[in-house]
Write a structure and sequence with these properties.
Elements (H helix, E strand, L loop, with lengths): L1 H23 L23 E3 L4 E8 L3 E10 L5 E8 L4 E4 L7 E3 L4 E9 L5 E11 L6 E11 L3 E3 L6 E8 L4 E8 L8 E6 L5 E7 L2 H7 L5 E7 L6 E11 L6 E11 L2 E4 L3 E7 L4 E9 L7 E5 L5 E6 L8 E8 L6 E13 L2 E13 L2
Parallel strand pairs: 2-9, 11-17, 19-25
Antiparallel strand pairs: 1-3, 3-7, 4-6, 4-8, 5-7, 8-9, 10-12, 12-15, 13-16, 14-15, 16-17, 18-20, 20-23, 21-24, 22-23, 24-25
Length: 369
C-alpha cells in the first residue's frame, strides 16, 4: 500500500513538470523568449534647453490688461525634440507654439519660441501664473514657464477706501473737518482729475491739488494729485452718507465713486444715536426711548418734522432741578398693530442757533404675535 502512495506522488510531480515545459519551453526552442520591455526610447535622444529664467518677473501691471512673454527653446540633443501643451494654472494664462498641430518638432541644433499670454482681469495684488510644456526628452519630460508680479488698479487712491467707502468717523458740526487723499496712476504718471464733486457741495467740498515732491516720494509715484475734502460746519446731526465722484483722464478708469460715511455730532447729543425695536409683538405693542442732551443745559424747542408711519412719537422735557437741557423722545408701537417692518428716520427741527435739525435713524420689526 505504501508503494502505491509513493507512486501516486511521483506521477503528480511528473505531470506538473510536463505542464511547465509545455507552457514555457526548455530554452532550446528559438521561438521561446521573455516579454520585451516597452516604452524605452531607441535611437538618438533630444535634449531640451530653455534660454533665461523660467519665471518672468514683470513687476507692476494694472488690471484688465493682456500681456505676453516669449521663451526660446533649443534642442541640444541628436534626436528630434517634440513639444506640446500639457496644462495651465488658470484660463487667464495660455501658451502658444509656432506649430499649428498638437505637437511641435524641433530638429537637432534648431530652436523655437514659446509665447505665454496672460490677462490680469480684475485681480489686485500678487500675481503668479504658469503653463506646463511636455517634451519627449527622457531627462526632462516637462517644464513650467511662469509669470510673476504685482497687479494694481489703473488709478490708485491712498488711503485705500474700504469697499468703496471712506469712513470719516465722528464729525463735529461746530467746526470744519479737513481730510485728504492721494490719487495717482502706476502706468500714467501724468494722470489728471478732470472733475471732482460731492453729492452735497454746499456742505462738503472737494478740490484736486497737484502732489508736492515730498508727497510724491511718500506715495512712491512720479506724479499724481491730492484731493482735499472739507466738511463744513452746520450739517445735521446723525449719520453722514454722501457721495464723492472723481473723474480722471485715464482711459481704463475714467470714474471713481466713493461713499463718505461718519457720525455728525454737535451741541445736542442723541443717546443712543439710532432707535431699534426688533421683534415687537403686534398684539401687545411696545415702546423705546432716546435721550437728547443739549450742551450747557440750554433750553431748546423741538418740532417733529417727520416720523415713520404706524408708530407714535412723543417728545417731552426730562429736566430736573440739577440737570438741565434733557429731553426724552418716546417711540410707541400701538397694541393691536399688524405685522410690519420699517427703516425710516425721525426728523426734529430745533431753535438752537447751531443745530437746525436732527435726524434719528429708526428700524422697527413688528411680529403678528
Amino acid at each position: 500500500m505504501f508503494r502505491w502512495v509513493i507512486l501516486s506522488v511521483v506521477v503528480v510531480v511528473l505531470a506538473a513538470a510536463a505542464t511547465f515545459v509545455t507552457q514555457y519551453g526548455t530554452g532550446s526552442d528559438p521561438s521561446w523568449s521573455l516579454p520585451a520591455s516597452e516604452g524605452r526610447a531607441t535611437g538618438p535622444a533630444p535634449k531640451v534647453e530653455i534660454e533665461g529664467p523660467l519665471t518672468y518677473e514683470f513687476g507692476n501691471l494694472v488690471t484688465q490688461k493682456t500681456n505676453t512673454r516669449k521663451w526660446t527653446v533649443r534642442n541640444k540633443g541628436e534626436g528630434d525634440l517634440e513639444l506640446w501643451l500639457d496644462g495651465s494654472s488658470c484660463l487667464c494664462t495660455v501658451a502658444k507654439l509656432k506649430a499649428e498641430g498638437a505637437k511641435e518638432v524641433v530638429k537637432p541644433g534648431a530652436s523655437t519660441e514659446v509665447e505665454v499670454e496672460w490677462k490680469t482681469k480684475d485681480m489686485v495684488g500678487e500675481y503668479s501664473k504658469n503653463i506646463t510644456i511636455a517634451t519627449n526628452d527622457p531627462r526632462r519630460p516637462a517644464f513650467k514657464l511662469s509669470v510673476h508680479g504685482h497687479v494694481q488698479n489703473p488709478v490708485i487712491v491712498m488711503p485705500q477706501p474700504v469697499e468703496n467707502t471712506i469712513p470719516l468717523g465722528v464729525i463735529s458740526n461746530d467746526e470744519p473737518l479737513k481730510v485728504s487723499m492721494a490719487v495717482f496712476s502706476p502706468d500714467r504718471p501724468g494722470l489728471k482729475p478732470t472733475k471732482v464733486v460731492t453729492s452735497k457741495p454746499e456742505s462738503i467740498s472737494a478740490k484736486p491739488v497737484a502732489l508736492t515732491k515730498e508727497e510724491q516720494a511718500k506715495a512712491r509715484t512720479p506724479g499724481g494729485y491730492r484731493v482735499d475734502i472739507e466738511i463744513k460746519p452746520g450739517l445735521s446731526q446723525g449719520n453722514l452718507r454722501e457721495e464723492l465722484i472723481i473723474e480722471t483722464d485715464h482711459p481704463d478708469q475714467p470714474r471713481l465713486q466713493y461713499t463718505l460715511t461718519g457720525t455728525i455730532t454737535g451741541p445736542i447729543s442723541i443717546i443712543p444715536p439710532a432707535l431699534q425695536m426688533i421683534t415687537v409683538s403686534g398684539k401687545k405693542g411696545g415702546s423705546s426711548e432716546i435721550t437728547l442732551l443739549v450742551r450747557e443745559g440750554r433750553s431748546t424747542n423741538f418740532t417733529i418734522a417727520h416720523k415713520p408711519e404706524k408708530v407714535e412719537v412723543e417728545l417731552k422735557s426730562n429736566e430736573t432741578p440739577s440737570l438741565k437741557g434733557r429731553y426724552r423722545l418716546t417711540v410707541t408701537v400701538p397694541a393691536g398693530s399688524p405685522a410690519f417692518q420699517l427703516d425710516d428716520q425721525i426728523i426734529l427741527k430745533t431753535d438752537h442757533p447751531r443745530v437746525a435739525e436732527l435726524r434719528i435713524p429708526v428700524s422697527i420689526v413688528v411680529g403678528s404675535g
